[in-house]
Every structure is written in C-alpha cells, then in structure tokens.
C-alpha cells in the first residue's frame, strides 16, 4: 500500500472516529486535550468557577436560611462548571453526543432491558419503602440535605464506575488476534487495510523488501486518553440506563404511596405534626415525594454497583456495548499499524 493511499485511509478513519465518539483517537484532538489539561490552562477557569459557585451557594443559603441548600448549590454549580469545561476545552461533546445517541437510538432494546431489571429492584426497595424508620428519616430531611444526599449517592455511583469501568476496557484488549481485528474493522474505512496488514503479518512477507511485516495485534493495548475515551463513553451509557431505572423507581413509589399510604399512615410513620399534601394532588404529600426521591437516589447507587458486579445485571446492562468496545480497540490497533507503515514509506 502506497503512502498516499494509506494517508487517505487514515483521514477517512479520523472522520469515522469523530462521528462515533472516539474523539481522543484522533491525534490532533488528543493533542488539544492534553494542552487543555495543563495546569496553566485549568487554573483560572477552576478558580473562577469556585468563586461563582461559592457566591451563589452563599446567596441561596442566606436567602433560604438553609445552609445545606447553599452547600448543595455550590457543589452543583461546581460540577456544572467542570462539565462545561469538559464539553468545550476537553472535546467531550462528541463523546457525549455519540453515547446518548447510541443509548436512545436503541430504545427497542433499552426499554425491555430496563423493564426486566426493574422488578428485582422494586422487590428490594419496597422493603425500605414500607419501613417507618425510613419514613421518619427521609421525610424530615430539609430540601438542602435531601439535595446533598442525592448528590452523595450520584457522585458515589460515578466514582465507582470510574474505578471499575477501566477494568472492563482492559479486558477487551487481552485477546486480540487476526480474527478479532477483521471482525472489528468490517464495514469501516479500515476494512481493506486490516485485511492486507493481517495477511502480511501472517505470511511474514511485507509488500516492500525494505519494510518489516507489521502485526496490528501488537498495537492492541490501549492506554492514556484513548483508554479514557472508552471509559467516558461507557460512563454516559451506563449513567443513562441507571437514571432511567431510578426515575422509574421514583414514579412507582409516588404512585404506590398515593394509592396505599393515606395521610393518617404517613402521619403516624413520620411522627410529624402534620402532612403537607399538594393542593393540586391531595393524594400526594411532600413527605411522600421526599421518601420517593431518597429511595430513587439509593436505588441509583445500588443498580450502578450491580451492573458491574452482579452477573445478571451485568449481562443486561453492559453486554450490549461490548461489541462497540471491541470495534474501537480493533480499529485503533489497525490505525496505528497503518500510520506507522505510512510514516516509514
């Protein structure tokens, strides 16, 4: 394969990577992200974000008289600032867009998967819902503390995924061979170069006597920003699925509580002087909503852990994206081998 022809394949693959949420696989994009991660670039936005978050949190805490609300707003605004910097300077927007499109574009598979997992989750969570101690604790939480509790569960779930998902990515590149590469590159711009490179590596005879046969499988190990590209895409996909389940849990307990938990029962379980029912929906109380929010946030953390550690949940939630991981790892190996071949020509 001539150098000019290889360059055409590389350019087409760069465009393919960009369309499929593999931004950090493109050398130019990866270099830009490394520059954006330098302390000299991140220090000022981080400082400004903290100042704005602290000011808004202090203002809200003073206006409401609830310090917990101020702290919750501070953390939320700080998190939104980090997300904005990731979407812009760190080129996370294409990764997010692809992951969301990949998730919601397969609703025919996503909804049955959520519905299969939901009954098991509800059996577990219902034991907490019909527990007076849970009602006494959750119903008495101030808005700020409930907000902070939700943030705690959500951040714990994200932290757990950021620790465990790299392990899932590392498993994919352990057994890369010729068949793996050909399967991964099928239907992509690298289909033909992959077949040629694999054939050369198998025969040990490169197309030119001045070159060595390049084995694409030797480039399979993935690391650095490219590894984190896959981890972040998986994080978004898993987060959307878990959030859908948590939302379903919230709706179920609000409806279930409105049907079977009368105001007298809620008053007895919470031991509050009165129950604050919604004027436009008398069967739903503020206390019922708080308990449902608390259990939904708790279920979010529970399902997040289960999707990675429990084989039943893992097969349902994680198995659907394994093919995407394999394709990314295989294409990257062929891409790097082809790039080295082009630079040596």
Describe the protein's architecture and organization.
With 345 residues, this protein is mostly helical. Helices cover 78% and strands 2% of the residues. The chain has one domain. The protein has a two-stranded antiparallel ribbon with strand order 1-2. The protein is elongated and about 80 Å long. The chain starts with a helix and ends with a helix. The model has no long low-confidence stretch (mean pLDDT 84).
Question: Which descriptors would you attach to this protein?
Answer:
single chain, two-stranded antiparallel ribbon, 15 helices, 2 strands
Spatially, the strands of the biggest sheet line up as: 1-2
**Gross morphology:** elongated
- What share of the residues does DSSP label as strand, in percent? under 5%
Number of domains: 1
Main sheet characteristics? 2 strands, antiparallel
Low-confidence stretches: none
**What share of the residues lie within helices?**
over 70%
What is the strand and helix layout of this fold?
Elements: H1 3-19, H2 27-36, H3 39-64, H4 67-88, H5 93-104, H6 107-129, H7 132-139, H8 143-172, H9 178-185, H10 191-203, H11 224-260, H12 263-270, E1 277-278, E2 281-285, H13 286-309, H14 311-317, H15 322-344
Helix pairs in contact: 1-15, 3-4, 4-8, 5-11, 6-11, 6-13, 7-12, 7-13, 8-11, 8-13, 9-10, 9-15, 11-13, 13-14
Transmembrane segments: 44-65, 71-92, 113-132, 144-163, 230-260, 280-305
Organism: Nocardioides eburneus
Protein name: Integral membrane protein
